[in-house]
Amino acid sequence: DHTARLWSTASGKCLLAFVGHRGWVFAATFSQDGQQVITASADHTAKLWSTASGKCLLTFVGHQDWVSSAAFSPDGQQVLTASADHTARLWSTASGKCLLAFVGHRGWVFAATFSQDGQQVITASADHTA
User: Fold this and answer.
1) From its phi and psi, is residue 76 left (phi > 0), alpha (psi between -120 and 50) or beta?
2) Residue 126 half-sphere exposure, CB side, CA atoms within 13 Å?
């Protein structure tokens, strides 16, 4: 249904639906403080959401194909996305602007994540490399 949903582990009830993507939602990840969620979608975007209101705060636009994963930097100031367009991208959570594109894979980038100190990122791809 093109949504991500926030659930209670105590009751099993849906607390919020994050509505706004126009394609499948492949991934959803909490920020360190739990105040925000980042989602990755087949609509070629990632979205930043408030966990308090369920409202979309930012849409990250720039990928040319499905966005398969999204992760927050340790300090929450940046988001890293991975895409079927063979790239990973680094975004500002303040402005929504793309800061860097990591180009070099020859296949779908399935996942990308930050090192614990936020100084490096790692990607995993269908081209049989990481």
Assistant:
1) left
2) 12
Rounded to whole angstroms, the Cα distance separating 71 from 31 reads 8
Entry pTM? 0.96
Half-sphere exposure of 120 (CA within 13 A, CB side): 4
Q: What is the pLDDT of residues 58-117, one digit of tens each?
A: 999 999 999 999 999 999 999 999 999 999 999 999 999 999 999 999 999 999 999 999
Question: What is the tens place of the pLDDT at every residue in 3-52?
Answer: 999 999 999 999 999 999 999 999 999 999 999 999 999 999 999 999 99
φ, ψ of residue 40 to 5 degrees: the values are -125, 135
Contacts by 85-89 with C-beta closer than 8 Å and gap 24+? Answer: 86/125, 86/127, 87/63, 88/112, 88/121, 88/123, 89/60, 89/62, 89/63
